[in-house]
Design brief:
Layout: H1 12-26, H2 53-67, H3 73-79, E1 82-84, E2 92-94, H4 98-110, E3 114-116, E4 123-125, H5 127-141
Antiparallel strand pairs: 1-2, 3-4
Helix pairs in contact: 1-2, 1-5, 2-4, 3-4
Length: 142
Amino acid sequence: MGKAVVVKDVNAQELVKAYSVHLKKQGKIVLPKWVDVVKTANFKEMPPQNKDWYYLRCAAVARYVYLRPGTGVGALCKRFGGKHTSKVKRGHFQKASHGVCRSALQALEKIGVLEQDEDNGGRRVTADGQKDLDRIAGSLVN
């Protein structure tokens, strides 16, 4: 038998893509009605062009919480933030939209991938969520 493969052992981009396909195929995540018109941050000019961007964001959130248990909305907004540039002024860091981050956390909680961490605050991955993520990570290696 080979060594068990976990989320840390695979490329993050490939894992997020594969897990987002799994979430979409599963069909348990209910998309919010605003998913086609909302910007993901105040420094963005347009909403995402990818129709499946919400599944990608949920997969990225699940991976991030897997690696850092106790992550909350504020940490996720900082993680998905970026540089706000202007034509004249220098660029400064801006956080991502709190509503989008909170909605992704709540959607993952509703399907049983994440749960509230009463001890440390924030969220943590459930046993079922960890099993799904590790299984998908193992399929990427083979």
